[in-house]
Amino acid sequence: MKKISIVLCILCFLCEITHAQSLKDLFLKMPQEVCPVLSEYNRLEIVDNQKNGKTMQTRNLFRTFSKMEELTDDYAHLVISKNSEKEMKMLTKNDGTRIIMVISTIFCDETPDSSVAFYSTDWKPLPTHDYYTLPPIDNFRRVTIDKNTGQLIVSTTNAPLMLNIDGSNQPKEPYTLTNTFHWSTEENRFILDN
Q: Is pLDDT above 60 for 19?
């Protein structure tokens, strides 16, 4: 009987450790520096709303609404405002260590600009270059000057590595946008051509 009790206690302890490692629990313990607009109360309200089957939203510190689009044990998609969102994914390294990847996206004129950060499960920042290497900017943006017209030409190509969290929806062909500017002596700067 004692052996069964000890085994049950060990199993309960291991289950508690595993449960504490879920992204839901880590979201509640997340330091405010990772998402300054959400207080501890806001994060708790989002998780409570999910438990009660309600819309997972809260009035953030800017007095606007933030909404959790998806929250599972290993993934979270949080819309902070109409111009910003965060995605969090629990990853497991080859040695079994679990880390958290946080993708922060800001939309400027509907164009997303994202940054990636990695954290340990106790929210200590990890060096990003250990997990993700950025390609050179020339892979995405080229700036040239037409020698004949003196126009500045800026071409931006979407990154072929910008995928959904599961690696799907890779663009079949790169999307390229080219803007041409001419020099305005009146304003002493380049002006976008129409």
A: no
